[in-house]
Amino acid sequence: MPKPWATLGIDLHLEPAGPGLRRGLTDALREAVRTGRLAPGTRLPSSRSLAADLGIARNTVADAYADLVAEGWLTARQGSGTRVADRAVPPRPTRRATRQREPGRLPYDLTPGTPDLSSFPRAEWLRAARRALDAAPNDALGYGDPRGRTELRTALADYLARVRGVRTDPGQIVVCSGFAHGLKLLGELLRARGRRTLAVEPYGLDAHWDLLARTGLRTVPLPADRLGPRTEDLGDLKDSADSAGPDGAADVPAVLLNPSHQFPLGGALPPDRRAAAVGWARRTGGLVLEDDYDGEFRYDRQHVGALQGLDPDHVVYLGTASKSLAPGLRLGWMVLPPSLVTEVARLGGRSTGVLEQLALAEFLTSGAYDRHVRAARLRYRRRRDALVAALADRAPEIRVGGIAAGLHAVLRLPPGTEEPVVRAAAWQGLMLHGLSRYRHPSAAVKPVDALVVGYGTPPDHAWAGTLDALCRALP
Amino acid sequence: MPKPWATLGIDLHLEPAGPGLRRGLTDALREAVRTGRLAPGTRLPSSRSLAADLGIARNTVADAYADLVAEGWLTARQGSGTRVADRAVPPRPTRRATRQREPGRLPYDLTPGTPDLSSFPRAEWLRAARRALDAAPNDALGYGDPRGRTELRTALADYLARVRGVRTDPGQIVVCSGFAHGLKLLGELLRARGRRTLAVEPYGLDAHWDLLARTGLRTVPLPADRLGPRTEDLGDLKDSADSAGPDGAADVPAVLLNPSHQFPLGGALPPDRRAAAVGWARRTGGLVLEDDYDGEFRYDRQHVGALQGLDPDHVVYLGTASKSLAPGLRLGWMVLPPSLVTEVARLGGRSTGVLEQLALAEFLTSGAYDRHVRAARLRYRRRRDALVAALADRAPEIRVGGIAAGLHAVLRLPPGTEEPVVRAAAWQGLMLHGLSRYRHPSAAVKPVDALVVGYGTPPDHAWAGTLDALCRALP
């Protein structure tokens, strides 16, 4: 009688003995089935004869067969032996893992929204992480409070009160994976209450409008003028709420604002419009969602405090480490009216790793965060000054709009030149965004030609070259 | 006015400061209630006055009160302050509370779902984090690929193929913040396609059913018998889909299964039911969501490979570091059919910090993960063996159900005894879960009395005492 296994012509590449033998046999057989070398319906040799053939223990073969039967690769039926299972779909070859390159970037990059990643304080962060993990109780590594670690919420409550005038205590803070995640949870909250509409500023990020749309909320832009969004008109916007009467005339339930530094236009909301937003929220039971994405960075004066300080019961404050440290940390925070904390935490707490949370808490309480922000503020301020000076020198008719703050500036261009400038810049190896991509599709404001220059993005060594490339691309 | 606390005459033996303060206060108060020094109905001083009395922060007291309310030792009602809870069962004579106790927990804890947090490899993890951050390009700290870091997805593709028989490449993996987060995204995906129903097993976690309900999906339990859920009946379940015809007779779009180790019942899905699930998915275009939460831990044989290996186009594999390392990392992963990757990543990628992702990639590729899992497997196997032996000795009529795997076991109890046993255990300082809390409200299966014993939860030093407390609590 021929050896049945030899007949099948499979080379198993088995280790001769030891604990890896069974696994090796199982893997080899699975691979042979998967790649089609053993066709569906093929009858396998008995465990006794394969064991003899391979010179191994019969149990090893029987166990391997049993594993593969359990996984569904083989079938075993009384009287018909062990066969390769029938499979409707042809097996796909296992592809080798390909090392994918990061999406290609041009050599010069002024895309807004990212800080200088080369200045991330790696050594200090690792030190903080080590200290924090050394001090953490075992309990910290569990599922824990859906709002986030108490150490971080306590440190944030102190920091936000001190630096941004936020009125809170640790119990009202929910840690999240950055601003977008927090916004998504708030959108879900509004939808769960049957609301369908959210007011936004006429310029902003389409990624935010899209994620709100995916939660089921329509975004309607506020009217705006050169001072910013007209919050005094909030009362005119209506929700097409599920719960609204037949005339659908309920007030919009919430508005998303950048009161301290509008993105991308760069203005600060005037005091009377801050008051109007809070007054509207009080009057209608509405919510102001305050996106304070770069509240650490103001260069000409002390930054205006958070709107939340005016009315902690009607403003949700959203902050992030994405601009002050790095987006890769995925660390953001919401300061919520007490009545919303439990519901928001239930919708999506426990998103961010405890070790990052503990490291940030240590970073904040040790003063390392303040030191880092001071150094970063100086760096970005110098860049902004250099940008203003270079433009005054080389393109004097172009003005830098907005307040001296944050990581980006808006350069107004002659009508009709935005798109050609962006395209020309790309040909020179400079990645640039025009203002038009930030305009809400339903915005009533007149489009203007401008660039949104993220001067925070380049590493220090590339800054001079990037600025030069920008000046060369301007009309 | 007399100091109210002094009136109560309790000596708290508190550490004067530091992170142990809240825990110390919580323990001392619990002990006072347990031993009857604080009688049921006694009104406690306000957190403000007790804080002043003890010279500590008010929040510390408020937190301790909240912990004890959550544990049921105290009650808090608007207008009547915080009082010692009424208790139906008189307290047993007290053992001394252990010093290592975690806040808000009883001294002995067999709650399932958490590994032994004291065995988290802190030093190795920090080493991996340092090496990973040293090697990472600046770019890694940016917003990055919504699927997660390529280093981690590459390491996972290799690891999952090797250990769990998963067929994938790095492009099909989306990193998420744990299983629940992945499930939420998949629920959103189904809802975005107008689907309304998801099939589940009759026993599982209410937290999962609740989060699916919040995405707008109704969960319908499969019929089941002693072999597990009857996946051959999947075709009988219907979706009340938005897009269905007037008879609403579309197939359910997806089923959530634990094929390798059912939680909590502990069985493995038999081969023919694995095949039936995949066959149903192919026939109807449905999806199997495979929850492989503890695939690293099988003690009696090599673990059955992932169901995903049978059909990568119809099975979403979900894995997590929450059982193999620690829930606090907030690291999970989905292996998706190629057609779903972009949509799922858009719904909620970028949830987990890059540094944790890079550290896990380094942990996997350096072999530290395998070493840790081997040590953990041995630890949990010994505990399971000790549990089985102790029961054979001290409660021989109680059987341990399910396969020898994972971090939990099911102990069948005489009818009508589950709730009294759980309550008696709590009074002895042992936190235990009965099986009934894991039963889906619409499950057609007959309820049985049983305990779900999370033998992975205690730290090593507490294991012997915990096992002893369990045996004493049994009928």
Please describe the structure with a list of short key phrases separated by commas or semicolons.
homodimer; alpha/beta; Aspartate Aminotransferase, domain 1; Aspartate Aminotransferase, domain 2; 3 domains; 5-stranded mixed beta sheet; 4-stranded antiparallel beta sheet; 38% helix
How does this structure look, described?
The structure is a homodimer of 475-residue chains. The first copy, chain A, is α/β, with parallel strands linked by helices and 475 residues long. Chain A folds into three domains: 4-84, Winged helix-like DNA-binding domain superfamily/Winged helix DNA-binding domain (Arc Repressor Mutant, subunit A), CATH 1.10.10; 108-114 and 371-473, Aspartate Aminotransferase, domain 1 (Alpha-Beta Complex); 121-366, Aspartate Aminotransferase, domain 2 (3-Layer(aba) Sandwich), CATH 3.40.640. Chain A is 38% helix and 13% strand. In chain A, strands 4-14-13-12-11 form a five-stranded mixed sheet, with helices on both faces. Chain A has a four-stranded antiparallel sheet with strand order 15-16-19-18. In chain A, helix 2 crosses helix 4. The first copy, chain A, is globular, with a radius of gyration of 30 Å. Chains A and B meet through helix 2, helix 4, helix 5, helix 7 and helix 11 of A and helix 5, helix 6, helix 7, helix 9 and helix 11 of B.
